[in-house]
Design brief:
63 residues; mainly alpha; 2 helices; Perm1; signal
Length: 63
């Protein structure tokens, strides 16, 4: 999902026509997509780190 949002944001910026007055909409859409991807990635990393820490604590207390 994260890579899809980043790819979409890149595509929007590449295909946007800067001479049109509505170019700000494409930039806004690209920025929102990129921020959503970053937020998703941060949540995923935190969740994975918490799971790894819990697994480590569980294996240490089992020994």
């Amino acid at each position: 999902m994260c890579l899809v949002c980043i790819a979409f944001a890149s595509w929007v910026l590449k295909t946007a026509n800067p001479q049109v007055g509505d170019a700000w909409k494409a930039v806004l859409l690209a920025n929102v997509s990129a921020l959503s991807a970053i937020q998703y990635l941060r949540k995923y990393v935190r969740k994975e780190a918490a799971a790894a820490e819990e697994k480590l604590n569980h294996s240490a207390s089992a020994s």
